[in-house]
Design a protein that fits this description.
Layout (H helix, E strand, L loop, with lengths): L6 E4 L1 H6 L11 E5 H8 L6 H18 L8 E2 L5 E5 L15 H15 L4 E4 L3 H9 L4 E2 L17 E6 L1 H10 L2 E2 L12 E6 L5 E7 L2 E4 L15 H11 L5 E6 L5 H14 L5 E6 L15 H5 L4 H11 L3 H9 L2 E3 L13 E6 L6 H8 L7 E6 L15 H9 L5 E6 L6 H9 L1
Parallel strand pairs: 1-2, 1-5, 2-4, 5-6, 7-9, 12-16, 12-17, 13-14, 13-15, 15-16
Antiparallel strand pairs: 3-4, 8-11, 9-10, 10-11
């Protein structure tokens, strides 16, 4: 082995986050402790992404086994080697419980760190795992393959406030649009803009499309009455009601109106026959019991997770009878994300709630299900993540926002102003 090659020890969390991670370290050496395989095996029967990835890892290693001895190491086409380590897991450092799988993985990493000439790095999505490694002098890193930005300050908000000469403001009024080249700031496609005159107190709201800044549309069709309470909600309604934008991402604090605006827009489109049904889904990754442990059928199991949707129906229509009737007629379908794979949604308005708790791979699965005439809206608060192996920068919602921020068929807006109550808004900011 060459001394400039690194040794990467993969944790279970990495393999279940991205199945391709097992062969994503070209020209380096990858070690998978036996304890990791034991953990992966426990997930192979699960529905959804976790089960799929666990089965992929098992199949991949089985294929490599046919080429040689996994314990001795198998060379891959990308210059990487991969091996399963069956030794050293019992030499758990003092102070750690030897019956905890993570600690047996650490024992393997500790051994190789002390006995190899190569640089050894543990790759894990588990923050506590990295803390343990640091305390023991073992180098560890997060798995960064999907991360696009390096700082929370870089997260795209979907809007920009620009000060311009009063002449520019008057030009916008006269022509009904403004050429992009009349302002100095570069704008992404479908980015919302607040134009403010230097001496005039007038503010104009627009959106960048093509080579122009156009006025907002933000029309809610039919009898559903909805008034935007602030400029950000006006931006959101513009994106939600445009048929030429099939992907909308919306982030914001609790009580900012994300779910309510989306639901009312979906109902409006349904009433106008622009969509045939509304699909509501969310990730089943929670801090509590999984869906399979809850009693009843799929709808019964989903009810605890769909309470925010029900609350918005109750707020809009004073009771839930309208919601129940639409579910009964098939106009509203509540579906767990793990049941989405293999389906195609045509002429549907799909709402993915709490999508900040999903990985990019889960959201890719959902977005690629969208057929013609459909719209998908991803909602979430990237500051409230309940999944242990993703964070503000690596969650699926943040990544989708960044990847689609200059697409003509996608639009994003961040809602920063709470409208639920003064108490709720203050709590979101100070707690």
């Amino acid at each position: 082995m060459q001394h400039d090659r690194k040794v990467f020890i993969l944790d279970t969390s990495v393999l279940l986050y991205d199945k391709d991670s097992i062969h994503s370290f070209p020209d380096n050496d990858v070690i998978i402790p036996l304890a990791v395989l034991d953990e992966v095996d426990r997930f192979k029967e699960k529905r959804g992404i976790l089960g799929e990835y666990a089965r992929y890892v098992n199949r991949f290693l089985d294929d490599q086994r046919k080429k040689g001895n996994l314990h001795e190491g198998i060379a891959l086409k990308n210059g990487q080697t991969i091996r399963v380590e069956i030794n050293h897991s019992n030499n758990v450092p003092a102070g750690l419980d030897p019956f905890v799988p993570d600690n047996r993985i650490i024992a393997v990493a500790d051994y190789f760190t002390k006995n190899l000439m190569q640089k050894v790095v543990v790759i894990t999505k588990d923050i506590n795992f990295r803390v343990k490694c640091d305390a023991l002098g073992i180098e560890s890193e997060d798995y960064y393959k999907d991360r696009i930005i390096s700082s929370e300050n870089q997260i795209y908000t979907g809007q920009s406030q620009i000060y311009v000469d009063d002449e520019i403001i008057h030009r916008f009024y006269e022509k009904g649009f403004l050429e992009k080249n009349k302002i100095s700031e570069d704008l992404f496609e479908n980015q919302f803009v607040v134009l403010k005159g230097y001496s005039d107190s007038t503010s104009l709201l627009g959106v960048a499309r093509g080579d122009k800044i156009e006025p907002l549309v933000s029309n809610i069709w039919d009898a559903i009455k909805l008034n935007a309470r602030n400029k950000e909600q006006k931006f959101a309604l513009d994106a939600l009601t445009r048929e030429d934008i099939p992907l909308v991402t919306m982030t914001g604090i609790a009580g900012s109106g994300k779910t309510f605006l989306t639901l009312m827009s979906a109902l409006s489109g349904l009433n106008q026959k622009k969509y045939e049904r509304i699909i509501i889904t969310r990730s089943m990754q929670t801090v509590g019991k999984e869906i399979g442990f809850l009693p009843g059928d799929i709808k019964d199991k989903m009810d605890p997770w769909m309470s925010p949707i029900a609350d918005n129906f109750r707020h809009a229509f004073k009771d839930l009878s309208y919601f129940d009737l639409m579910v009964e007629k098939g106009e509203i379908e509540v579906a767990p994300m793990s049941f989405i794979r293999g389906r195609t949604f045509s002429n549907a308005f799909l709402i993915v709630d709490e999508s900040q708790n999903s990985t990019i791979h889960e959201l890719k699965t959902v977005i690629t299900r969208m057929g013609e005439g459909s719209k998908i809206v991803l909602l979430g608060d990237v500051e409230q993540i309940d999944t242990p192996y993703i964070d503000t920068l690596s969650n699926g919602l943040t990544i989708v926002v960044e990847k689609f921020k200059n697409s003509e068929i996608a639009s994003h807006i961040t809602l920063t102003k709470g409208e639920r109550s003064k108490l709720a808004t203050l709590a979101s900011r100070i707690i």
